[in-house]
Amino acid sequence: MEKYRLKQHPVLPIEVRSDITFYWNSQPLKAKAGEVISSALFANGIKIFGHHPKDGSAQGIFCANGQCAKCTVIANGVPVKSCMTEVCENMIVQSVEGLPELPEVTETPNFETIEEIATDVLIIGGGPAGLSAAIQMAKHGVKAILVDDKSALGGKLVLQTHKFFGSVEDSHAGMRGIDIGKMLAQKVMQSKEIDVWMNSTALYAFIDKKAGILKDGRYKIVVPKIILNAAGAREKFLRFKGNTLAGVYGAGAFQTLVNRDLIKPTERLFIIGGGNVGLIAGYHALQAGIEVVGLVEAMPTCGGYKVHADKLKRLGVPIFTSHTVLAANGEESVSSITIAQVDEKFNVIENTEKTYPCDTILIAVGLESVKEFAVEAQMAGMKVFAAGDALEIAEASSAMFNGKIAGLKIVKEMKSDVGDIPESWYKKAAILKSHPGKIEDRIPADIWEGVMPIIHCKQEIPCNPCSTVCPTGSIKMIGDPIMGLPRYEGKCIGCGKCVAICPGLAITLVDFRKDASVPTVTLPYEVGNMPVAIGDPIQMVDIDGNSLGSFAVTGVTSGNATNRTQLIKAAVPKEIAKKIVSFRIQDAEVSHQIEKSEPESAIADTEMVCLCERVTAGEIRALVRKGIRDLNQIKAITRAGMGPCGSKTCDNLLKQVLRSEGVSVEEIVENTRRPVFVEVPMETFAGKKGGRNA
After folding, report:
1. What are phi and psi of 383, to 5 degrees?
2. Tally of CB atoms within 10 A around 351
3. 485: nearest Cα among 527, 457, 517, 519
4. In the listed set 590, 623, 645, which residue is the last one of a domain according to the structure?
5. What CATH number is given to the structural domain containing 68?
6. Measuring CA to CA, which residue among 77, 91, 78 is closest to residue 36?
7. What's the structural domain count of the chain?
8. Which band of pLDDT confidence, cut at 50, 70 and 90, is reported for residue 1?
9. Looking at the structure, do residues 241 and 218 belong to the same domain, yes or no?
10. What is the structure's pLDDT at 694?
């Protein structure tokens, strides 16, 4: 078991946890106390959780967030989502092989009274937006119930080991996401006004303006005056040949395994998608000691922050822009990926196929808001607000700030004596959700004495911790104090605070004071599980990852003062000192191609659209060509969207197929969502405890 667990991490503490025994298909295995089934299986090297009853295809994980049903197993006789179900001592877990036989019910039903609870506000989601809103409500004495389906507050913040962008004042820029999550959670937990329900799921909003909540396995009714939807977002799936192989899953699932559960789920990783989610996942993989074979992005440039992309390239990860994935290859699990170049219309260019060996493919092609509960609540006539990704997909720094605004809006609804929300808040909210801006060439100051920071970020993004932390005020923002580009103009004292705090690892320090011809360069480094020691040769690179030569390390600094960022020093020639940004840690051999006997081509009609019911794009396309535009009719014919995930995964893919056939968005009749939104044992509605540890 220990082979697949992280033994060290440059940011996360490896805590000692007690072992418990569970059984997987009659085989005794060890798990860690408090661990969910899917993570316990991965920790034991098990990535195939069963086989689909329709076509026998291998089933594993995709979202690890309770949104799909690909990870279903049988726990103590009951089908459960393994990513949401905690392992218990002596739990009997079985793979799903064919259609499972459920245990017979021999008890006489005993209906108990369902508890009904009134509250001012029902907050759905304990992530950055929900927590920030709750803090505002608590400040003004507004009572709320906060519901979250995990065992710890923080949402995606608990997965983020990197330092945040944005504003120091408004979104804690320079702090790591995991630390921000703990800070916000502590404030909420200490509040007397906020009642936090963990391990709880919002099931449905009813026409009588009541909400059904599954609280730790028990069904309850909540009657709120206002609902705040801060449920976040789910990851989008992608159509390509082999997309249902075990080992194809979302970037969020990967971060959950690695950064929350301290599992090493893969040896060789390939990423699809060059947004911030994919780029950050690649960086997290390196921090966990995982080889990142490459990243593919269909657009000519990555959509995420340039500093994130540059960071990967500098460390040795190739990024293939204007490329797409053709196929995931393998029998039941991924063994390789085939990609190809695309033209300006995203058509595959013949004879550009490349195949790389890997055992895992991460899909990071965008997010969609989790809003079905809020939609039903609005239809029931309930007053609903939204914040975070449930309102608009953006960075967590933006989610925190618009959560703060939403919280105060709700306070104003409840209390007439509260003043207006400052206009400056809305302006900052707009800045924090801004897309990356223009890219400018940066020329370092023509100074060749003393000590000075070299700022390597070239793109306008909402970020200002370097100017905030500088003790001499020598780093100033050009233009907007958050969105502008930083510039050095002043007197540097060589403290290195800007180097340590920069979220993009895009600031270095050049010190000419000891030897003007061979100055010392200080570089930030956060992959401490690939240790660097004094005397080690390191391969210096520029901002694009081009080699500048090998030089010996002369110093290594780390500790609380640098917030778990190591500062690596090396003496280098004056001519390249200001060009050096980082050093390569991953060898080029990691990304070697393998020969394919014949070119791979995308087979559009066999691409899987509905994972639950195994419906292909070809089946959908045939119905569309017959004139069908109603997703409900498609569901009735093919069962696409009728599976246990409730069309959460396939809805976007179905619409993609319709759009590819020339059907406009206005012509598509939306799929009708049916209660409940999450699978619940029937006995739970009788007032009995069920679900998680059933």
Report:
1. -85, 120
2. 8
3. 457
4. 590
5. 3.50.50.60
6. 91
7. 4
8. low
9. no
10. 37
